[in-house]
Amino acid sequence: MSYDVVIVGAGFAGASAAYFLSNAGVKTLIIDVKGWDRVGDRPCGDAIGKHHFDELGLPYPKGHELEGYVKGIAIYSPSESSSILVNGEGFEVHRIKYVQRLLNEALGRGCEFLGNTHVRGPIVKDGYVVGVKLWSNGGAKEVYSKVVIDSSGNARSVVRYLPRSWPVNESLELRDANVAYREVRVLNHEIEEPEVLRIYVNNEISPGGYWWFFPYSLMRGYVNVGLGIRADLRGLHPKDLLYKYVLSRPEFKGSRIVEAGGALVPTRRPISSLVWNGIAVIGDAAYVVNPVHGGGKGSSMISAKCVAEAVVNALDNNDVSANGLWSANICYMRRYGCKQGALDIFRYFLQKLSNDDLEFSISKRLVSGDELNEISLRGRFEVGLVDKVVRLASLLTRPSLLIKLRNVVRYMDLIKDHYMNYPSRPEGLNEWVRKLGELINSYHGSLT
Predict the structure, then answer these.
(1) In 3D, which of 280, 283, 404, 225 has the Cα closest to residue 28?
(2) Residue 401 and residue 442: Cα distance in Å, rounded?
(3) Which of 221, 311, 344, 391 has its CA 20 to 30 A from that of 324?
(4) How far apart are CA 268 and CA 324, in angstroms?
C-alpha cells in the first residue's frame, strides 16, 4: 500500500492534520492504536480557546461534541482567599466525538482510517522516512508514503526509532514534564458559575503544577477535576495528592466518578524542528503544550495546520526533504513556538516561587487578569506592564520577588527574540539550537 501521507495517531493533532490535508485532496491514511470508538481518548482538561478555531478555520464543536461554554479562568492563591479572573471564550469539548467529526469529514474527502493498529517504527531508505511498519490483525505489514506525520503523543511511535542526530528525535527530560491525573465526576449539587474554570496554585498540594476544577456548563453537576505535578518529583503521585487534598473536600462528598485516567504532559519549549527528510511531528509528540497552563489541544491544531500546509507545498514541488518541508517550522515557531519558548522560561520562574510569593502576587494583584491573558497569548511582558509590576513590588517591599521578576522578564524577551530569528534553512539549525541552549543555561545559572 502506498499513500502521499501516513498520519500515525488520530488524536486532536492527527485528526486536524487529516482535516487540513483532505481539503487539499492529499491521499492520506490515518492510523491509530485505538478503534474508531475510542479515537482521541486521552485524559485532559478538555478546554480549548475559541480563538484557536477562529484562527485555524476549524469548525466549532456542536451537539454532543460540546460539553460546555467557557467565559474565563479564575486562578486562586494558595490560601484560596484571593483570585485573578482571566477572561476569554472557549469550549469544553467531548474529545472523542469532536475528533470523530474531523475524521469523518476527512474520510468523506477520500482519506482512509486504520484502527486497532500498532506502528512498530519507520521505514528508512537513503536518509528518508518512506513509510511505517505495522502490526494489525495479528500480522506484520508495511505501508509506504511520501511523508509520515507522527502525531502519536508521548509514545512517539515513529520518531523515537530515528537516529538521535535527527532533530525530530529530541528527548524529553522529566523536569520538563508534568504527570497529571484527573477524574470526571458528577456532583450532587449545582456548580456556581459553571462557565468559569478554576485553577489552584499551591506548592504543597501540587508541587510544580496546579490542581483544577473545570465544570461542564451544559451538563448539570459534571466537573473535570484533576491535579498535575512536576514529573521528576520522586515519591509523589498526582492521584494520591488529588484524593488527599481535593476530593476529600465537602463539595465532593457523595459525588460519582464517570471516568478517570492519567497522562504525562510535556510542559516545555517545542522540539527544535518539526520536520526532517520525509517525516513531520505534531502535537504532544512535538512537545507543543503550553508550558504554563498545560493546555495542548489548541497548539496541537496549530502544529497540524503548519505541517499540513508545508506538506502540500512539498508534494507540489516533489521535494519532501527537510528543506522542502522547512516552512512548517517557520510557520509554527513564529506563530506559537516563540511564545511557547518564552513561557518555558516563565514556567521555571513560577516553579521557583514559594507559596508566600504566590499568595503575595495574587492577593496584591501584581498582574491583572487581562494582563496575565496578554502574557499567555504573546509570551512577553509589555513595557508598561513591567514598569507597573516593578513599581508595585518596590512599594510593597518585596525585593527578592522584584529581582526574580526583572530577571525572568529579561530572559523571556531574549528567548522570544531568538525564536523569531529561527533559521530560514536546515543548515542554520545546529547553531540556533546551540545559542538557545546557552540562553536557557544562563537563565538557570542566574537562579543560583
Answers:
(1) 280
(2) 19
(3) 344
(4) 27
Best CA proximity match to 158, nearest among 119, 216, 215, 186: 119
Which residues, in sequence order, are CB contacts of 106 under 8 Å at separation 6+?
Answer: 15, 18, 19, 21, 22, 28, 30
CATH class of 68-93+174-266: alpha beta
Instruction: Tell the burial category of 407 from Cβ atoms under 10 Å away from its Cβ (0-12, 13-18, 19+).
Output: middle
**Tens-digit pLDDT profile for residues 409-442:** 889 999 999 999 999 999 999 999 999 999 999 9
Rounded Cα distance, 252 and 250, in Å: 5
How is the chain split into domains, by residue range?
2-46+94-172+268-325, 68-93+174-266, 340-446
Q: Which fold has domain 2-46+94-172+268-325?
A: FAD/NAD(P)-binding domain (3.50.50)
Q: Report how many helices (DSSP H) and strands (DSSP E) the chain contains, helices first.
A: 13, 16
pLDDT, tens digit (0-9, with 9 covering 90-100), for 148-202 = 999 999 999 999 999 999 999 999 999 999 999 999 999 999 999 999 999 999 9
Instruction: Kindly report the pTM of this predicted structure.
Output: 0.94
